[in-house]
Amino acid sequence: MLGPIVNALVVIVCSLAGCFLIRGIPDRFEDLIKKAIGLSIVFVGIRGALENEHILLLIMSMVAGAIIGELINIDKWMNRAGQWAEKKLGLAPNPAENSAVSKRSFSKGFVSASILFCTGSMAIVGSMQSGLQGNHETLFAKSILDGSISLVFGASLGIGVAFSALPVLLYEGAIVLASLAIRDYLTPEIIREMSAVGSLIIAGIGFNFLSIKEIKVANLIPAIFIPWAYLAIFG
């Protein structure tokens, strides 16, 4: 549980710092920080993917996973879930509202940050790696990313952002425990190949932060499970 705990603590500390110490970050700093984090995530993802020993399986998994994910359209459903939560809680943007109070609403900060920190594939892949391998590197990298975003969100949306640490801890912790429960049914080879595919997907998140070309990373999540199915049947 080290990875989820660190991630939650970083969100709390950084969002409180943004809320009480920082009153708005200039756009040029925000843009450069975002790109620096994107480069770091690309490096972490590619380094993890290089542990792969079955390159054809990795390619096949990415292609098959992309087809499955696009058919289900996970990205669309995640976005709809966020829009539904905003609508239900009355948090949809209102052009007529420009007051500081509306911008620093507790519920708006809490829901917006929770959705952002919990619905990315980095949370899923990182938590699986923590549970299956005891490797917290991805969640540590995610913590840096979430911390940077929390600084900005805390400054603009208020203390509600800090409370998003609770769903982050519960969500990632549940995935870690579920991974631990099935770990005995996975061979080291399957774990290595699943982690390699997951790492390559994580690199896609980095490219999104660099604004090179938007990748629907959520639709690639099914690729993580293809090596498990393939090696369990044919391995």
What does this structure look like?
- The chain is mainly α and about 240 residues long.
- The chain contains eleven helices and no strands.
- The chain has helices at about 1-20, 25-50, 55-70, 75-90, 100-105, 105-120, 120-135, 135-155, 165-180, 190-210, 225-235.
- Helix 7 (about 120-135) crosses helix 9.
- The longest helix has 23 residues, at about 25-50.
- The chain is globular, with a radius of gyration of 18 Å.
Topology, pairings included?
Blueprint: H1 2-20, H2 27-49, H3 55-72, H4 74-88, H5 100-103, H6 106-118, H7 121-133, H8 137-157, H9 165-182, H10 188-209, H11 226-234
Helix pairs in contact: 1-8, 1-9, 2-8, 2-10, 6-8, 7-8, 7-9, 7-10, 10-11
- β-sheet strand percentage: under 5%
Rg (C-alpha, Å): 18 Å
Give, in order, the helices and strands.
Answer: HHHHHHHHHHH
Cα shape: globular
- Sheet bearing the most strands, described? none
- The assigned structural class equals mainly alpha
- Poorly predicted spans: 98-103
Distance between the termini: 31 Å
Report the mean per-residue pLDDT as an integer: 79
What's the number of helices? 11
Give the proportion of residues in helices.
Answer: over 70%
**Number of extended strands:** 0
